[in-house]
Design a protein that fits this description.
single chain, mainly alpha, 7 helices, 0% strand, elongated
Length: 264
């Protein structure tokens, strides 16, 4: 059986359209060879089986294109995601280095340990933000994560530098470890879903307020910090955690939780 020029031209056109299922880079590299292979297979199918052979060929071509194109696009997506992940890590590292230039120029008395410890905190905070929000298109969710991490970062930094209750050597400041533990545990249980993160951050704010109440009742750090200072500092962090909870609540209303989950 022979095939007319019009039929042959139409078949090749259909095959080229089907090739669009492949990534552009793959088509540019292998497209011409695949088209030539299709022409050869089509002629062989017509010679051996006529119309039935041609029909069988199209079935095989369709199945092969569907499976191969899916694999190629999946691999391309993995490469893009991997590049983005590495790009995020490099970006966080550069931002950390730039931030550390400030104490390097302003506080030359810092020791090597101070710089390493500060760099570790800054880098881990930035990397956590990138990992949690990398698939979140919801701006409210991104802001909520940023506010929560900023509050945690400032709380740690302030305690290590001067202390919130009394001085940095006052053991009463160890209570803030439990505040952070409440937030971290809540985030793990919530699996970073905005509808569950809102109550987790509310619980964190409550824990922060409870520390202030305990400090005032028992007069902790009173030799260095007055009641007004303790209330003001703790109130600042309570406001940040409540603000984050409010943003998570808004994020839950705007976008389905499953679509922003980091492991989705």
């Amino acid at each position: 059986m022979t095939e007319s020029g019009a039929d042959r031209s139409y078949s090749e056109h259909v095959y080229r359209v089907l090739l669009l299922a492949y990534p552009k880079k793959y088509r540019r590299e292998y497209g011409p060879q695949m088209e030539q292979a299709f022409r050869d297979l089509r002629r062989e199918a017509l010679r051996r089986g006529g119309g039935i052979g041609l029909a069988r060929l199209w079935v095989l071509v369709g199945l092969d294109l569907a499976s191969s194109a899916t694999v190629e696009r999946s691999e391309e997506k993995e490469i893009v995601m991997r590049d983005r992940k590495y790009g995020s890590i490099v970006g966080v590292a550069l931002a950390t280095a730039l931030i550390l230039l400030i104490p390097l120029l302003a506080f030359p008395a810092w020791s090597l340990f101070d710089f390493v410890f500060a760099g570790a905190i800054i880098f881990s905070t930035g990397l956590t933000y990138q990992l949690v929000t990398r698939r979140a298109g919801n701006m409210a969710y991104r802001f909520a994560v940023g506010v929560a991490l900023a509050a945690a970062f400032i709380l740690v930094w302030l305690n290590l530098a001067v202390g919130v209750i009394g001085t940095e050597d006052d053991l009463a400041n160890l209570m803030y470890i439990r505040v952070l533990a409440v937030g971290i545990t809540g985030a793990i249980i919530a699996r970073f879903r905005p509808d569950a993160m809102a109550p987790a951050l509310f619980a964190t704010a409550l824990a922060q307020a409870l520390v202030a109440v305990i400090a005032l009742i028992f007069g902790l750090g009173s030799a260095w910090s007055g009641p007004g200072e303790i209330l003001a500092l703790n109130g600042f962090f309570v406001a940040l955690f409540l603000g984050s909870a409010w943003l998570f609540r808004n994020a839950a209303r705007e976008q389905p939780p499953a679509s922003i989950h980091p492991s989705a």
